[in-house]
Here is the input.
Amino acid sequence: MGVEVSVLTIDMHDVKYDARKMIDFNGIIEENIKPIKRSDFRNKFKRVIDEYEKNLKELKVDMIDLTDNLCWEDTCHVLSPLGYSVYVD
Here is the structure.
């Protein structure tokens, strides 16, 4: 009888997902509200993500990838259709 463990994989929490970084005194910072490609993020941090996920598999824990629900295919929107930040409360 063992204990089941679930762990989050490395998520895409980035400056772009911080609502405080989306606007400044001049208004909306367009660069910080563009969608992010999931594949670009995973490629940028490939070594770290691969090592982390390999270790989780060896420990036989369930991995939860938040981008499975927050992204559509390879595109992760920073803002919801109503204009709210997707990641930050």
In short: The longest strand covers residues 6-8.
